[in-house]
Amino acid sequence: MSEALVTVRSPILVLPATNIDTDQIIPARFLTTTSRSGLGMHAFADWRYGPDGQPNPTCSLNDPRAQDCKILVAGDNFGCGSSREHAPWALHDLGFRVIISSSIADIFRNNAVKNGLLPIELPAHAMRVLLDSAWGELEVDLLGSCVHMPDGSKLSFAIDAFARHCLLEGLDELGYLLSREDAITAFEQRLG
Predict the structure, then answer these.
(1) Alpha carbons 25 and 44: distance in angstroms, whole number
(2) Between 1 and 82, where is the model more confident?
């Protein structure tokens, strides 16, 4: 699947907009591929590029500092809209490993963890701090299930145990099953 995710320390890219839907993350016209590779160049295409195809200089995703960001902090209700596995593919290909918002759409969250992205929901008071901390450094510790805030405090976050295991090991669901091949074979032999 992807490399294991244990700790991510990175500057944060802030997109304060609310209700960022999957069509904004990866517009439908780019859904013609079943390959994950290369979708990052189309992530947020309608925000990043003008009608003439030139980069939008006011879009933070085009700021040279964005290239080092592995953590995306967004406004409320991130990933709403249609079920579109291409959305986490595009974000991952763009270099993100962690998405933080006050709320993340359920379908997007499920697709994210299956594709190597860690979706984190934090309370409103923490989000106010992070939304005002563009380009500041943040540390996310999946092993400890906590975010090290800019002021030095730690906030815990909830994550499904199976999703956490797969992210820590760099596995998707098929990879998990393949890692259990010996146990599956032993079980099948006991059934005879």
Answers:
(1) 5
(2) 82
